[in-house]
Design a protein that fits this description.
By secondary structure, the chain is α+β, with helices and mostly antiparallel strands. The chain has a single domain (about 5-130), classed as Nucleoside Triphosphate Pyrophosphohydrolase, CATH 3.90.79.10. The chain has helices spanning about 45-60, 120-130; strands at about 5-10, 15, 20-25, 35, 40, 60-75, 80-90, 100-105. It has a 4-stranded mixed beta sheet, sandwiched between helices. Strands 2, 3, 4 and 8 form a 4-stranded antiparallel beta sheet that branches. A hairpin with a 3-residue loop joins strand 6 (about 60-75) and strand 7 (about 80-90). The longest helix is centred in the middle third of the chain and has 13 residues, at about 45-60.
Length: about 130
């Protein structure tokens, strides 16, 4: 039996040396863990369209989506995640926790002090190894 793969777009938004991260609601899968903001791609949507929609819905911001900077495949057991991280820039609005438990600007050097979702841990590790963060 083939494993279900969830395609997810996430944003790397950096401002003044800090990265925008969100914390998942406790009741959600991976509840309470921190992640790059974003969400699941809907059928017929590009990853860039998905990211713009998700950030509008979850944080109330409009963004300009840039290039893909990292991609990880992570197996969560009953499903896998194909997580793609894109540079993004806020063009309108201030991030608010509309679809997540908390929003925080975190110094790049402090990201690993937070409890990150496993796929996001892999992204941060990859970004650090390539000196993107």
């Amino acid at each position: 039996m083939e494993k279900w793969v969830l395609e997810v777009a996430a944003a790397l938004i950096v401002k003044d040396g800090k990265v925008l991260l969100t914390r998942r609601h406790e009741a959600d899968a991976q509840g309470g863990l921190w992640e790059f903001p974003g969400g699941a791609r809907e059928e017929g949507e590009s990853f860039a369209e998905c990211l713009a929609r998700e950030l509008q819905e979850e944080l109330g911001i409009e963004v300009e989506v840039g290039e893909e900077v990292a991609r990880v495949l992570h197996d969560y057991g009953d499903f896998a995640v194909d997580l793609r991280l894109f540079r993004a820039r806020i063009v309108h609005g201030e991030p608010k926790a509309l679809g997540c438990a908390e929003v925080r600007w975190v110094k790049e050097s402090k990201i690993f002090t937070l409890s990150l979702a496993p796929a996001d841990q892999k992204l941060v590790q990859d970004l650090r190894e390539r000196r993107v963060l």
